[in-house]
Amino acid sequence: MKIAILVTAVAAVCFAASASGQNLVITNGRILDGTGAVIERGTVVVRDGKIVSVSSGASSVSGVRTIDAAGKTVMPGLIDAHRHLIEGDGAQWLAERAERQMAEFLEAGFTTVLSAIDAPQILEARQRLQQGQMRGPRLFAAAFIPLAGATGGPPQGDPARSDASRSARATQPAPAIPPEATRAAVERAAQAGFDYLKTVMITTPGGPEIETLKLIVQEGKKHGLPTITHAVSILDTLAAIEAAPAVLVHTPHIGHLEEDPAAVRKIVDARIPMTSTLAVFVPHFGPDNQPLFRDALPFPWSTISSAGQGPVNARLLWEAGIESYGYGTDTSWPPKESLTDELRALRVTFSPKDIVTIITRNAANSTLKGNEIGTLEPGKLADIVIIDGDPLRDSDDLLNVVTTIKGGEVLFEEPR
Length: 416
Prior knowledge:
Elements lengths: L7 H7 L9 E9 L5 E10 L2 E7 L9 E3 L4 E4 L1 E6 L6 H18 L2 E6 L5 H10 L7 E7 L34 H14 L3 E5 L8 H14 L4 E4 L3 H8 L5 E3 L11 H9 L4 E2 L8 E2 L5 E2 L12 H15 L5 E2 L8 H12 L5 H8 L1 H6 L17 E4 L13 E6 L2 E5 L3
Parallel strand pairs: 1-4, 1-5, 6-7, 7-8, 8-9, 9-10, 10-11, 11-12, 12-15
Antiparallel strand pairs: 1-2, 2-3, 5-16, 13-14, 16-17, 17-18
Helix pairs in contact: 2-3, 4-5
């Protein structure tokens, strides 16, 4: 990134209009811009909710709020590119839980969240956030579109507990969904106002999954809706990339990429961003020290191999040059708890420096919004967090958020 030099004359022009809540100067901070550059003492200038400049040295602008970072870390807002928000009844969640949950994301430093299938009330929550009726992160929502007809009753409990990709794979092709039904489903998602289409790739022998995914990708493009595809095994990841979805969600954690360099090369050459979600299979520990799964029930130890294989496969894809590998949790724990778990999983094979990139620039790529968010660069939205600590040295310092800014507006400040 080319670092802009802030001078008084330029600042005077930038702030000729009256200051607003989206005009801001953050000075005296250690800036991690998300591209890999570090400014030991620098200033970020924001006008109308966007970054005007990132420079070395301290500065202020008359009539505009100045935040003295006091040497703390200033970096892009954190992004969860794969999350589930609504538990239980959607209307009850919206009435009783949504406002507090959105505040929890801000307190944890998250300025953008992608809801990867939730109850329809997620769209109302997004609208309230956009209109300023509720404070919280920038929210995007995906609509679920199936790739094949059902072959049995609905799964009991959390589907990750007995994932068909793990052991009980089908031996017969799944029923095909008529193309007109798939087109209608995409049309309904577009009319409802969703931001993405979400699909789940679990192939069956001779089944319709790849062709249906190709159709969904094609129809989604007509409506400006990118397709996100769930694929958790190497087999299903290779099948999914045949249809060229916009994003792959979940690191393939079933199967050994170290034994299949051709698969590594094929996945990397597809040039599709991938979202991490490694911590689903890492036990979550509550106050009583009991290991829990993401559904808050006892941890299923039959899945524990994925806790190791996911990070290994992630690193192999990283070393081979995957297009982008970004942060996502696929959980419903409070944001700071989910962040704690995902950091534990990422640290198995990634450095603190890698993790900063994964949770900022790369996570923005996993939302397909990398041209707007994810780095501190002129012209991008001023989504910024101030952290007490150095996450390049210790990734756990990402948990020490003192200020969260979305679009130039300070939405959370730790009490002093």
